[in-house]
């Protein structure tokens, strides 16, 4: 039994939207996933939202509950008891959120807790528009992945490897409540150490090298899907791993300036696979690699079904 | 939307889940309560907008613990969590370096006093400071069901055989919302009224694999009814400098919302071919919102299940509503004091904004407290 992606979708803020919301972006991607897979929203047993930056710096309820509502999943169990009795929560681990949620989803599917897990990843500047804050590095972008069990040997996600680098967090995102005045709903601070990019490359290189060795992975037939975690990250990672830079994918955000954040693995997946869900001929598998604040890193192999 | 932005691939064949052979258990619990006690009468005196507020009569909360502002006290959300995690590890057979997972689940995310952190995860920073260098780390956020959600996720990770053990921890500097409420509310129907009943705490639980049905989490099942996800919203205030919680109390605690637990739990038991009575729970722990709330939910359970409720364990009068930590603080305090018996069967019932409902059934026998 493995865990496979049965649908994936991106959502960019609509042009001239005066109030883009990560909830709406995540929910749109979620609805696109359930529609593409031809399944009812009420068949989703667990929704895990992994976005970090959110409207008004909301900290309660889970963003996932609001995404769940907007995606039409288990609205009111007393009125209409959905058999899957959908449950949702936020899983927050910076850039590694999607892979962390895949790790959890594997366990939820393996134990029969649910038949379908929907992961949503959306970040929007708390003021509603990343372009209004030059110091904020991320793009307003949302994405979703629908995961299910598959019996196909060799298909789907392999083991998710997660690792933290000891020491400084490298990069952090916070609201300084002692200096926010009445503007706390629209402010956010993102800091980065001078050497954070170098440390991210070190962490990712070690993670991939160890994973390849322990999993017996041939990197020559592997397309690496990662994020634009720091300037030059993609090129430096390719060089350190001895790979053709074309074998390391870190797409730009389709939704305007700023780098993709938690949605990056889904964006990379959509750019890596064809419309039929297959890989280019030169590759047998994807290797998702995420690194970010913590420093935290995660990686996992993915083999599309029927390949 | 461009066509390539959505991709689907039908599953090649429905695979059955693996046989469920493993279970988890509570291996140890730990807590940290700030020493400073704030009586409800003293808090009421600070609510300038509503003289003579009958807060204690309405909520049953007599006093609560409040964080120490001095940086050296280490009582921000992160510091409270760290102290609770250390207490839990002191009560455990495991060393920090042996932990496979650390999950932080607080609603309030203060570190370095006033910085409300969205990333990195508090769990990553806690694991680093505890010396849990081999642990997978992430935060879960799910309103007052946060720790319950952490336990749910960790239970599934242990049952799937992906990890052997893990720590779920939460530090709640919840009285930050009480400070804002005290400064801003103008009547007892104010949406910030519920913020006056909260208290600060840190709680941690360590789970590992169960080898004995007499020391086991029998099930933990959770559900979110999302229609009412906007009834309780936490965010920075736009009136004063502070964080605030706005709750539509009337709608949030309407009777039909309270019926979610018996409806969901009843359906779960029906699938298992059992009744509530047959579960033979010794104790029930409701979310510690207030004494009236606890009594009301228990009466609702009694009416819906048609059987008396087990003995209800509470700590709300002494510690207020401690948000994510409430159920596990109640467990910790009663197990430690001997007012809850070891070897007994406990039912924990979450009630959180989202709206989250569910049930955790566990026999707790050897847990270190």
UniProtKB/TrEMBL annotation, chain A:
Coiled coil: none annotated. It comes from the Bacteria. Residues 89-161 form the Beta-ketoacyl-[acyl-carrier-protein] synthase III N-terminal domain. SUPFAM superfamilies: Thiolase-like. InterPro entries: ACP_syn_III_N, Thiolase-like. Keywords: Cytoplasm. Transmembrane segments: none annotated. PANTHER family: 3-OXOACYL-[ACYL-CARRIER-PROTEIN] SYNTHASE 3, BETA-KETOACYL-[ACYL-CARRIER-PROTEIN] SYNTHASE III. This is Beta-ketoacyl-[acyl-carrier-protein] synthase III N-terminal domain-containing protein.
Automatic annotation (TrEMBL), chain B:
Residues 138-220 form the Beta-ketoacyl-[acyl-carrier-protein] synthase III N-terminal domain. Signal peptide: none annotated. It comes from the Bacteria. Residues 1-21 are annotated as: Disordered. The keyword Zinc does not apply. The keyword Acyltransferase applies. Residues 277-360 form the Beta-ketoacyl-[acyl-carrier-protein] synthase III C-terminal domain. Keywords: Acyltransferase, Cytoplasm, Transferase. Residues 9-19 have a biased composition (Low complexity). InterPro entries: ACP_syn_III_C (IPR013747), ACP_syn_III_N (IPR013751), Thiolase-like (IPR016039). This is 3-oxoacyl-ACP synthase III family protein. It comes from Streptomyces pathocidini. The lineage of its organism: Bacteria, Bacillati, Actinomycetota, Actinomycetes, Kitasatosporales.
């Amino acid at each position: 039994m493995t865990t496979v992606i049965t649908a994936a979708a991106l959502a960019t803020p609509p042009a001239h939207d005066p109030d883009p919301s990560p909830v709406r972006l995540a929910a749109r991607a979620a609805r696109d996933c359930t529609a593409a897979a031809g399944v009812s929203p009420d068949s989703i047993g667990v929704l895990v939202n992994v976005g970090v930056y959110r409207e008004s710096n909301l900290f309660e309820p889970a963003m996932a509950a609001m995404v769940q509502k907007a995606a039409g999943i288990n609205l009111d169990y007393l009125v209409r008891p959905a058999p899957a009795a959908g449950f949702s929560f936020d899983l927050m681990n910076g850039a590694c959120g999607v892979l962390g949620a895949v790790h959890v989803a594997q366990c939820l599917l393996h134990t029969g807790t649910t038949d379908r897990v929907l992961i949503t990843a959306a970040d929007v500047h708390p003021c509603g528009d990343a372009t209004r804050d030059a110091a904020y590095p991320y793009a307003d972008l949302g994405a979703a992945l629908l995961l299910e069990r598959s019996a196909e040997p060799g298909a789907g996600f392999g083991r998710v490897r997660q690792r933290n680098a000891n020491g400084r967090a490298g990069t952090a995102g916070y609201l300084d409540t002692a200096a926010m005045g009445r503007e706390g709903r629209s402010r956010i601070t993102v800091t980065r150490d001078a050497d954070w990019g170098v440390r991210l490359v070190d962490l990712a290189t070690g993670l991939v090298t160890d994973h390849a060795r322990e999993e017996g992975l041939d990197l020559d037939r592997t397309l690496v899907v990662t994020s634009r975690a720091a300037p030059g990250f993609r090129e430096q990672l390719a060089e350190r791993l001895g790979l053709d830079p074309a074998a390391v994918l870190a797409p730009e955000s389709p939704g305007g300036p700023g780098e993709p954040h938690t949605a990056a693995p889904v964006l990379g997946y959509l750019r890596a696979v064809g419309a039929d869900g297959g890989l280019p001929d030169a590759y047998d598998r994807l290797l998702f690699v995420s690194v970010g604040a913590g420093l935290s890193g995660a990686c996992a192999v993915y083999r599309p079904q029927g390949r | 939307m461009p066509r390539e932005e959505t991709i689907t691939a039908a599953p090649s064949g429905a695979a059955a889940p693996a046989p469920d052979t493993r279970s988890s258990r509570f291996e140890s619990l730990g807590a940290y309560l700030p020493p400073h006690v704030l009586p409800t009468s003293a808090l009421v005196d600070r609510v300038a907008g509503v003289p003579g507020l009958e807060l204690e009569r309405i909520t049953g909360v007599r006093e609560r613990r409040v964080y120490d502002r001095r940086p050296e006290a280490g009582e921000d959300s992160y510091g409270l969590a760290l102290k609770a995690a250390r207490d839990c590890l002191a009560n455990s057979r495991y060393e920090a370096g042996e932990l496979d997972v650390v999950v932080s689940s607080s609603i309030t995310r203060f570190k370095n006093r006033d910085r409300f952190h969205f990333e990195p995860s508090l769990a990553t920073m806690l694991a680093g400071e505890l010396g849990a260098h081999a642990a997978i780390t992430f935060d879960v956020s799910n309103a007052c069901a946060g720790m319950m959600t952490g336990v749910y996720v960790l239970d599934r990770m242990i049952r799937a055989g992906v990890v052997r053990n893990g720590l779920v921890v939460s530090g709640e500097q919840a009285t930050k919302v009480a400070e804002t409420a005290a400064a801003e509310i103008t009547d007892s129907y104010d949406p910030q009224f519920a913020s006056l009943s909260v208290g600060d705490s840190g709680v941690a639980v360590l789970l590992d694999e169960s080898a004995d049905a007499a020391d086991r989490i029998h099930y933990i099942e959770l559900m979110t009814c999302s229609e009412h996800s906007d009834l309780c919203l936490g965010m920075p205030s736009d009136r004063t400098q502070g964080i605030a919680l706005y709750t539509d109390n009337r709608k949030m605690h309407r009777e039909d919302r309270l019926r979610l637990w018996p409806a969901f739990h009843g359906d779960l038991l029906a699938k298992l071919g059992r009744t509530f009575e047959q579960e033979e729970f010794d104790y029930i722990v409701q979310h510690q919102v207030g004494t009236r709330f606890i009594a009301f939910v228990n009466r609702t359970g009694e009416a819906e299940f048609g059987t008396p409720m087990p003995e209800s364990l509470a700590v709300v009068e002494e510690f207020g509503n401690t948000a994510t930590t409430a159920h596990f603080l109640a467990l910790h305090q009663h197990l430690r004091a001997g007012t809850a018996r070891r070897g007994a069967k406990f039912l924990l019932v979450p009630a959180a904004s989202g709206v989250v409902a569910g049930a955790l059934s566990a026999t707790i026998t050897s847990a270190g407290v």
